[in-house]
Amino acid sequence: MSPTPGTPRLDLRGLCKSFPGVLVNDRVDLSVMPGECHALLGENGAGKSTLMKIVNGVLSADAGEMWWEGQPVRVQTPSDARRLGIGMVYQHFALFESLTVAENVALGLDGAPGMEALSERIRAVSDGYGLAVSPTRHVHELSVGERQRVEIVRCLLGDPRLIILDEPTSVLTPREALALFEVLRRLQAEGRSILYISHKLDEIRALCDRASVLRGGRMIATVDPRAETARSLARMMIGAELPDLSERRTTTSEDHAPLLAVNALDMDRDDPHGTDLRDISLAVRPGEILGIAGVAGNGQNALMRALSGERLVARPEAILINGTPAGHLGPRARRDLGLAVVPEERLGQGAVPDLSLADNALLSAYRHGSLVRRGLVRRRHTHGFASRVIHAFNVIARGSESEARSLSGGNLQKFIIGREILQAPKVLVAAHPTWGVDAGSAAAIHQALVDLRDRGAAILVISQDLDELYTLSDRIAVIAAGRLSDSQPIHAVTAEDIGLLMGGLFTDHGPTGPTNDDTTMKGPGHVA
Amino acid sequence: MDGLDAIAALLVATIRAATPLALAAIGELVTEKSGVLNLGVEGMMLVGAVAAFATAVATGNLPLAILAAMVASMLVAFLFGVMTLSLMSNQVATGLALTIFGIGLSAFVGKDFIGIPITSLKPLDIPGLSDLPLIGPVLFGQDPLVYASVALTVAVGWFLHRTRAGLVIRAVGENHTAAHAIGYPVIAIRYLCVLFGGAMSGLAGAYLSLAYTPMWVENMTAGRGWIALALVVFATWKPGRALLGAYLFGGVTIVQLHAQGLGVEISSHILSMLPYLATILVLVLISRDETKIRLNAPACLGKIFRPDF
């Protein structure tokens, strides 16, 4: 049964899926040709993940048909999907931390070769595609990029003809992303189809042959992404014009004293996988955004924890908030000095998943305004504050009673940032503010940060996303191996400079990084 | 030869005291490895004990009595499974309720059996071997359930770490969302593990009422189910360590009983605490590596799994 040429490998016809009260997929049609790289675009909550879970057999559709190489099929379990030749690389990896790489791979295969034979096959595939993974290591020891390689290797061992990747670059550094693209191009050249879910428009334009845009559960259009601009794709995705960031002010504020200053901060790691911070110095002045670039795991976490007060610093003057030595102060005392923090993890650090938005607002804003009086929570004020955040930042939620976990990533992030901004902080420290957030929400978050800066706050943004740092920052510094480069005005540095610094090649002080490394990087794209 | 005999008697008593703990702990270990926390071990053991005793009185057939204990405890475990896995009730609360239910049910069923004698489970008697000094009674003079407890410990350790089914159980306990996404039937696997835990609690109960103290007394488990639960945690979910912990607990229990019998000048209340203290101390010491605990502990333990629909 060889399908005639021109037959799509995967053909979805009129798929519908609803959860109680929500129609998530509304008569969705989608076809993917053999050897095609097909992008599925859409904002968070547009129904992409649900659609892919249906294709992969994790969910079943309410109505509609799925055709595979010219035959109607019913996929009821992920095993069914694997038998057809559908492989999936999950966004939040479906890996088991306490198990080894080989065990993780074995769990994703239906036939069960012995562990030795399997390790051999893993080595063969990982060598063949340049996906370095060691079968005997435990997953909890691996970096995010390595974990993704494990997922891809597991997927490839099933010899799939269609590979679905759910936002694969959202956790990768620029260089890891480039390496991934190489692998994807090879897989495509072997005749495998790729369904690539993303909202990074530049990537899609670089990689994909066709792009289908999903909005509010409906298939809006299928287009050639190379014939579109990032801007026109974004318009299809969000159904409206993407707002421009307001004009960057060119006036610097050298004459003002910094609102946040770190002076020669040293901090030893407190867990074996952490990074020692060495001689970190920085200053953020009022009306300024300082961006800190760097590959994940180079001390960003440690720096965040030192700044937020989660870990105290023995020397008070190592950290100055609004001129006050604060190294020895806990998070609450630092908040009193005007510091606000948007941590990296939305669920768990930024918000308590099971609490309502109102209660989550209370957690950081309890001293703000009138939320608490004589130790008692004033429900009406709390809900009022949460509702103000929801309205001001256009958070899509049922209301201030919604559980934090029920919000999509982008909406929750808007809520967390809004909660901090409405408390009018003097200093805002944000880690990866738009990680995994769709283009519309990311633009709104960026605008909110810029507005806050224009009102005279000092903002520190730690991010892996160079595009984001170029969009936001007035000055930029790079963190590598626990050391921070000197900061420079954003227009004075190129992406290549930053790439060199990310490798640890500081010119002034700090370590000499790997010298044989290929540190050339693609320049940042120009997302509107 | 008197000294040797005394030591042999002490060792035999230790092993007998440890066996019900080991049986129940191994069962609970498998249940917990799949991510389910069943605090109803004590209740399941009691139901098993009374079922075994009643069957033994009615039929005189001890293998049948053991089977009855396993089936009865599995039924109770199944009830737990329906509550926590299908109806998604809280595992801690349901487990506590199960223990209370088991105490009541076993007392109700057992009230007609109090004071009735039965023929107890007989130790092996291998001519020649069983008569050897020291190792004869210790190694070759035990009853079948003692051997079963050791064999099952080894088998469970091998099963969990060397077979694909064991790998799947560990995966389900580690990350049920991922296991579901890859296509494993999380709920069904957990049901099987809960039933296995029930069967092992039944064996432990049967050992108490058929071999250890061959009679029926209300609440005769006397907290052994809770000890078994604690052993699983302190053993960092490793079968071999759970067995070791059980033997340690049994050993100190027997030694302190002898000490009380000899009239040692220490309050008997303090002596009675010793087994608990010693077991906790030793198991804490051998498992003080925090990362290892994190790795062995099933990350989804006690969490309710709700699949998408």
UniProtKB/TrEMBL annotation, chain A:
Residues covered by region (Disordered): 509-528
Signal peptide positions (record): none
Source species: Roseospira navarrensis
Domain spans labelled ABC transporter: 10-241, 262-506
Intracellular or extracellular location(s): Cell membrane
PROSITE patterns to which the protein is assigned, alphabetical: ABC_TRANSPORTER_1, ABC_TRANSPORTER_2
GO molecular function: ATP binding; ATP hydrolysis activity
SMART domains per record: AAA
GO cellular component annotations of the record: plasma membrane
Membrane topology of the entry: Peripheral membrane protein
Lineage: Bacteria, Pseudomonadati, Pseudomonadota, Alphaproteobacteria, Rhodospirillales
Swiss-Prot/TrEMBL keywords: ATP-binding, Cell membrane, Membrane, Nucleotide-binding, Repeat, Sugar transport, Translocase, Transport
The keyword Translocase belongs to this UniProt entry's keyword annotation: yes
Pfam family for this entry, one: ABC_tran
SUPFAM superfamilies: P-loop containing nucleoside triphosphate hydrolases
Protein name (Swiss-Prot/TrEMBL): ATP-binding cassette domain-containing protein
Domain of life from the UniProt record: Bacteria
Residues spanning the membrane: none
TrEMBL record, chain B:
GO cellular component: plasma membrane
One example GO MF annotation: transmembrane transporter activity
Entry membrane topology: Multi-pass membrane protein
Membrane-spanning intervals of the chain: 6-27, 39-58, 64-85, 92-114, 134-160, 181-210, 216-235, 242-260, 266-286
Key words, A-Z: Cell membrane, Membrane, Transmembrane, Transmembrane helix
Cited Pfam families: BPD_transp_2
Name this protein carries in UniProt: ABC transporter permease
Organism of origin: Roseospira navarrensis
